[in-house]
Amino acid sequence: MAAATDGRLKTVGIFIHPQIPAAPALAREIARWLRERGIRVWETDSLDEDAVLPDLRGTDLLVTLGGDGSILRAAHHTAGHPALILGVNLGRMGFLTEAEPDGWEEVLGHVLRGEYWVEERMMLRAVRAGGRPAQDALNDVVVGPGALGRVVHLEARVDGDLLTTYVADALIIATPTGSTAYALAAGGPIMPPQQRNILLVPVAPHLSLDRAVVLAEGVRVRVVVRGHSPASLILDGEVVAELPPGDAVEVEASPYVARFARVRERDYFYRTLMARLVPRR
Q: How many domains in the chain?
């Protein structure tokens, strides 16, 4: 079944976080509500690519029941597919989610009536040396400590030119979306999500460049592991490979974007940011 091209939803997937007790019951409620309105619905508690790919190819909207981590996983799997993402926040922060558990019906009602806009967010593509398969991330690509847990020595080049060699606990290469995640905790700046810059933020640098660097759109960052200690390659919080000394990874903007169905005003970002970051008195 092809995804809808006329703005109307025909098929909706629901991703249920497997470790949140409230998620299965909410999924059943949402699925029943959608089916009553003639929408084809499929549900899963795993985004294993082989298992969901046949359904995902014909899906117009993927509803995630969880937190931002669930949306990061959804972004990986919807990249290159027409499905939009809509998150219902069952987590803590919910920077990327669109609805709260008590407001999903109103939000989905707007979406079913075509009263929504599509927000596209830049993703990063990481490719290890040696022609290994490319991998995409929505928040960040991190080169951090390996199994030995020691500081890493990382040579960073931008479009082939040497920027610096970091001696640090880790180097974060983040999107504007990721600027409010690990990069923010490490002292990086907050960037609006519509930008397409790449952000470099060292974590606890030792006698090396200790400032965040904002790079222009379209650059390619090459990170080479120097010294004698291995490093780990981490995409959106998941360790995907160990990088021995001499190994390298290249990071640039992905050809794919994460696509979200939004019903809020287009300038929602700063209000959401303050609501999430500033404690209520």
A: 2
Asked, for residue 2, whether it belongs to a domain, the answer is: no
Please list, residue by residue across 202-233, b when 16 or more beta carbons sit within 10 angstroms of its beta carbon and e when fewer do.
Answer: bbebeeebeebbebeeeebbbbbbbbebbbbb
Q: Are the C-beta atoms of 236 and 113 separated by less than 8 Å?
A: no
Distance CA 247, CA 21 (A): 42
Per-residue pLDDT, averaged over 168-185, amounts to 96
pLDDT in tens, 29-54: 999 999 999 999 999 888 766 666 66
Determine the pLDDT at residue 170: 97
**Residue-level pLDDT at 71:** 95
Q: Tell me the chain's radius of gyration from C-alpha atoms.
A: 20
pTM of the model as a whole: 0.91
Cβ-proximal residues to 47 (8 Å cutoff; 6+ apart), any chain: 15, 73, 74, 76, 77
Choose the catalytic residue: 45, 50, 55, 68.
68
What is the torsional sign of CA 199, 204, 207, 211? positive
Would residue 68 show up in a list of annotated catalytic residues for this protein? yes
Domain membership of residue 65 (yes or no) is: yes
145 and 227 in a single domain? The answer is yes
Q: Examine the domain organization and report whether 134 and 112 are in the same domain.
A: no
Please give the structure tokens belonging to residue 196: 């397409």
